[in-house]
Structure formats: C-alpha cells, structure tokens
Write a structure and sequence with these properties.
The protein is 13% helix and 33% strand. By secondary structure, the protein is mostly beta strands.
C-alpha cells in the first residue's frame, strides 16, 4: 500500500493543505544533490520562459534568431540541466513539426531543418533558435519549450518573411486550380500559397482583386478595397471576402501566392530583337542567368523597386512588366506588375526578364 501513496497524491490535485503547482506535488524536503541550498527538484521554484510578443521579420537567405530565455523564480544558487524543444505549429490542426531538441550540449534537428538550426546559447539560460538560410516554408509560429524535471513551460515566437502577395491563374484560364494544383502553381513561380494574415496585410497595403483564390488554410477569399457590383456588390464595405473552406480536390479557383524578397537580381535583358518564349529562355541562359519566374518579378518590383515599361516573357509563358513609378504611356496610374496574359509562345513579340542568383 505504501508504494501506491505517491501515485494517489499525484492523482488528487484538489486535496486541500498540500502545496500544489501546475497539478503536481512539490516536496519541501531537500534533495541530496542540491549542494545544500534547499533547492530540490520541485521545491516550489517556478520555471518562467520568455519569448518576444512582436512578430519577427526576415528575408530569404539571411540568418534569423528566434529569442527564448528561461529563468527560475526564485533564482537557483546553481544551474541545473534542462531539456529544450523547439517545434513549429502547422495549419489546419496538423501535428506540430519537430525542429530541434537539446539536452545540455547535445542537440538534434529534424527534417528540412537538419543542419540549418542550432541553439544560440550566447548567455546562461539563453536557448534561442538560430535558423540559417530561411526558406519560404519557414514562416509561421514556433514554440520554445523548456522542461525541468516534471515541469515544463513554453512560449511562442512568430516568424514572418518579408514578401509580396500576388494573385495567380494558370495559362488554362480563370478558376482552373484545385488546392493541390494551386500549391504546385505557386511553387513553380518561386512562391508558396499565401496565408490569410499575408493576404490581409496585402489588402491593408491596397491589394484589390476580384477573383477568388485559395489560401494556405484551404479557404477561398479575395481582397476588395473599392467595392463594386461584380465583386460582392456596392453595399459591402471594403475588406477580404471569404467563401470559407472549400473541398481541396473538387473545387477550383485561382490562388494567392506569397513570394519572399530575393538575394538575386531580376533584370530586363537588353536584346536587339523581340523574342519567342523559347528564344527568351535561351537568351537568359546565354547571359549566365535563367528566365525569371512570376514570384521573382513581383519580389524585385516590391523590394528592389524594379521599374520597366517593357513587356517581357517569364518562365510560365506569361508576359508582364513592373512599374514602381507610374507615368503616362506605361499603364494604369497605380504602381504594380502589369500583365499581358499568356500570348502565343511562338510569336517573336516581346523581350524577357532574367534572374541571376547571388
């Protein structure tokens, strides 16, 4: 019977008169290994984990550190080892994605993070996570968990990549993509499917688009800054209109993609002649580059101020040009990336935009 008593105590957190914390019983006795400081493993010491409340922003290709520190209240006279775990929260209720676990100097990273993450440990009780060469899919919410014996505490860090949201439809035309095809379409343009938060931020910055598109959570929405009859009616206020979640395989729409800022260079290739799509692709290759993708052109326009009134081929067979400073004879009075759609790829009618990685 004596062997069962500790178990019964743990299962009865509501018993009055016992010093409980987080549902566990903490002994007030001294632990022989605590060097006589009266700081046994669970001696009423509280574990506190601190992470920043504000969102962190970074660029692709740069390193970023997700801050996380912990402390004990009251402070311990001598440190004791803890276990640290970082994971990423995923959309749609999917299981968390393990990023890194560490005990003392030993650590292990997982999946696509392997070899790209480590704990900073610049100071005592600093367990910040450094991510090298952030990728498009790295943005999101990360949880830092510190485990001290039976107690664990955690904090959230939100990471966002500087980027631009753009609507995309394939050469086949409007509303042709199911959710999985939408994901592939964005990836082919060096982008990912945008989240609602990214689309909302783009709407706040003036994005106005009447075609509904997929978002990362498999909902279908579209941003309106100027209400009009074909876009939900004149009676609705500006905002992000929502069709709600759609069937990922059966329903078909356009997609909103998110492209992060680039380290490379997008440029209009000066060429003596107009080109077909195949000739444009070869001309970029001969110039030591590759024909640019839609996401790369949008990122160069947004973050590098790329401004050119010449229409040029892109890798998906579309023809576009970026305008950072609107002017006469260069399209509408607003800044943006203009599109000519998907012309005949065999027509030698346009120039080309190339991309050269750094």
């Amino acid at each position: 019977m004596g062997l069962l008593l500790p178990v019964l105590v743990l299962l009865l957190p509501g018993v009055s008169g016992l010093p409980f914390y987080n549902g566990f019983y903490y002994s007030n006795g001294r632990n022989p290994s605590n060097n006589g400081h009266g700081e046994g493993l669970f001696s009423g010491v509280k574990l506190v984990v601190e992470t920043p409340e504000e969102t962190l922003f970074t660029y692709r290709g740069a390193s970023v550190t997700l801050p996380c520190r912990y402390r004990h209240e009251p402070a311990l006279a001598s440190p004791r080892p803890v276990r640290v775990k970082w994971w990423k929260q995923l959309e749609n209720g999917a299981p968390e994605q393990d990023v890194l676990v560490a005990i003392g100097p030993k650590h292990r990273s997982f999946g696509d993070y392997r070899g790209r993450v480590h704990l900073r440990r610049d100071e005592e009780r600093d367990v910040s996570l450094e991510i090298r060469d952030p990728r498009l899919e790295d943005y999101g919410r990360y949880r830092c968990e510190v485990i001290d014996g039976l107690e664990d505490q955690s904090g959230l860090v939100e990471l966002e990549l500087r980027g631009v949201v753009f609507p995309y439809q394939p050469p086949r035309g409007r509303y042709r993509l199911n959710f999985h095809e939408a994901q592939q379409a964005c990836e082919e343009q060096d982008a990912v499917v945008a989240s609602f938060e990214q689309l909302f931020r783009a709407w706040e910055e003036g994005l106005d688009w009447c075609n509904a598109g997929w978002l990362q959570d498999a909902s279908v929405q579209y941003p309106i800054t100027l209400p009009r009859q074909p876009c939900g009616g004149l009676g609705l206020a500006p905002g992000v209109r929502s069709y709600g979640p759609r069937h990922r395989r059966l329903h078909r729409y356009d997609v909103f993609c998110f492209a992060a800022a680039l380290r490379g260079q997008v440029y209009y290739l000066e060429h003596p002649e107009k080109l077909t799509l195949a000739e444009a692709t070869e001309a970029c290759r001969e110039d030591g580059a590759q024909i640019a993708k839609v996401g790369q052109l949008f990122a160069a326009w947004k973050f590098r101020g790329l401004d050119r009134c010449d229409a040029g081929w892109l890798a998906d067979g579309s023809v576009r040009y970026p305008v950072a400073h609107p002017r006469p004879h260069c399209g509408p009075p607003e800044a943006g990336v203009r599109s000519f759609g998907f012309p005949d790829p065999h027509a030698a009618s346009y120039g080309v935009y190339c991309y050269r990685p750094r």
